[in-house]
Amino acid sequence: MAVRKIGLPALVAMALVACGGSSPSAPTTGSTIVLGAPLGVLMQKLITEDKANFLLGPYGSAATATDAAIAEQNQIPMVEANGAAQAIFNQGYKYTFGVLSPANKYLQGVIDMAATLNPKPTTIAMLSADDNFSLEVANAINTYAPTQGMTVVLFKKYKNGATNLSAEVQAAKAANPDIVLNSGHLTEAIAINKAAKQQKLNAKIFAYSVGPSTPDFITSLGADANYVYDGSQWTPQVKYTPAFYLSEAEYVAAYKAKYPGAGDPDYHVAESTAACLALERAIENAGSLDANKVRDALAKLDVTVFFGEVKFDSRGINIYKPMVVEQIQNGVHHTVFPANVADAQPMYPTPSWDQR
Asked: 227 and 84, same structural domain?
């Protein structure tokens, strides 16, 4: 988002830009932050040739896993915001830190919300892409749902990136579940929703791990996006007391001023900004640009920003920040769970396709 100066008197004036891009480096006077290189070869080049001091991670768990290995090899701290697979953090790495909640939390909030609804849904069809992130999300539901009195009646995997998921949706329809969950990405979420309408797969709840929170989901599906839920890392309705930078409302206003017509920022934007803020605070706490001192400051970091608490366990992942549940209602994202941050009630149960 906005360029922001880091206050390091007598050390360096460093600029931060949005974490989600692929720009080779931020503006610098004495030190460089490299943004989101998606390919390991490029990341290595930026370290060895451009002499990057710190790294901000790329988008997606697969790319983050590749770059985490390179950061570790070169002992350069990397703060990342878009790789949630715990497999990244189970390698014993000491130089990678993720500000977002881990993959196993993505759909658990949907189950918790469902347990409060009347009539309570009790059966689940779990569809999942076969990449590490998606399987972590799905396997967590397979384990967690029974603790909430629900039964997974179908667990079906498909190839990551698949766009024809008619067979999977047909299998879900045959299982007649109360809840249809998908663990995958935007393209797959759109494909499943389209196939559900075509095959008249009806359920009380449709919820997808990644996709519905983005503007593209609504743009692609129009009114058919309504009623869909997703687990979200952040929404504009969350309530935190930030130690520095902007409040939630100020952040949303700043984003809209910077990008007129773009609507509210989604959680991918917010978590990327949070990664910048985490690195900023770690550098300030370290009082140094030494990579190992900044790494140690990251390991000890515990600060609340507009995105929530940023604190890392011994693996470098943020297990402390909760997720929320949002639902698309009349073409607009609303936070519906937990109740203390909700701006709307769940529209439940989802009407059948013939009644929409």
From this structure: no
- 145 lies in a domain? yes
What is the C-alpha to C-alpha distance for residues 238 and 335, in angstroms, rounded to an integer? Answer: 8
| Rounded CA Rg of the chain | 21
* Predicted TM-score of the model (pTM): 0.85
Q: Which domain holds residue 248?
A: 4-103+238-311
pLDDT tens digits along 264-307: 999 999 999 999 999 999 999 999 999 999 999 999 999 999 99
User: In this structure, is residue 316 part of a structural domain?
Assistant: no
CA distance 161 to 241: 38
| Spatial separation of the C-alpha atoms in residues 270 and 53, rounded to whole Å | 23
By the 10 Å C-beta count (0-12 exposed, 13-18 middle, 19+ buried), 232 is classed as: buried
Instruction: Tell me the pairing of strands 302-305 and 308-311.
Output: antiparallel
Same domain, 224 and 142: yes
pLDDT digits (tens, 9 = 90+) for 170-193: 999 999 999 999 999 999 999 999
